[in-house]
Specification:
The protein has 213 residues and is mainly alpha-helical. It has a two-stranded antiparallel ribbon with strand order 1-2. A hairpin with an 8-residue loop joins strand 3 and strand 4.
Length: 213
């Protein structure tokens, strides 16, 4: 596995572990609208390395572990890093846009960055499949990617955790757009998947923006 991927996974684990055991550290680095509006923009990145609990951390890192190598194999490690952080920031910006007037809104998680990598990997390898030990049959990668977004509908409805669900959409947009900019031939060579992956982004963005979720 590429050293850059291992470094990002390691950073997420170490920083999240620190946050699990140090509430002051967690509060100083989480995504918090009031603090960001007061000038602490670093939270838009630092919050992407914190997680709500071990399950949240595992799910994000498992997804990154499964899809990250596909992006690295196609674009190389530096472009992988670029897509990861573009998606992370895009997720934070969209969250800031949606919750700008809620100064008490808080969230954490690498969901935006990971969703961007998932979307990029699926665009690059639309025929990829996942083999999960608890499911005896392969799962098409695009099904996982769309499901990853749909999961955030529940989270946005429930509003009962500290996970940045809106960041899923921003991250998807970041990964989707950056990959297409780097590989514009996909509009012709992979039109079906380009359209399929755009549908949940557009639909769920509209629903969220209209406050129907």
């Amino acid at each position: 596995m590429d050293i850059f991927l291992l470094a990002i996974i390691g950073a997420n684990i170490l920083i999240s572990y620190k946050g699990f055991n140090d509430l002051s550290f967690f509060r100083k680095n989480e995504f918090h609208i009031g603090s960001i509006r007061a000038g602490e923009q670093f939270r838009m990145v630092s919050s992407g390395f914190l997680h709500g609990d071990w399950a949240h951390l595992f799910f994000n890192m498992f997804s990154l572990y499964m899809f990250g190598p596909e992006v690295i194999d196609s674009f190389g490690p530096l472009s992988f890093i670029l897509i990861y952080f573009v998606s992370l920031v895009a997720g934070s910006l969209l969250t800031l846009s949606f919750h700008n007037n809620d100064i008490n809104y808080r969230a954490v998680g690498a969901s935006g960055a990971v969703t961007g990598i998932v979307y990029s990997a699926i665009l690059l390898h639309p025929d990829m499949s996942l083999y999960l030990y608890f499911i005896p049959i392969p799962i098409p990668g695009y099904i996982f990617g769309i499901g990853y977004l749909l999961y955030s509908i529940y989270g946005m409805k429930a509003q009962n955790d500290n996970i940045g669900h809106v960041a899923h959409f921003g991250g998807a947009i970041g990964g989707y757009t950056t990959t297409l900019i780097k590989e514009p031939n996909m509009f012709v060579d992979n039109t079906f998947m380009v359209v399929v992956l755009a549908i949940p982004i557009v639909l769920l963005y509209i629903l969220a923006k209209s406050d129907k979720l």
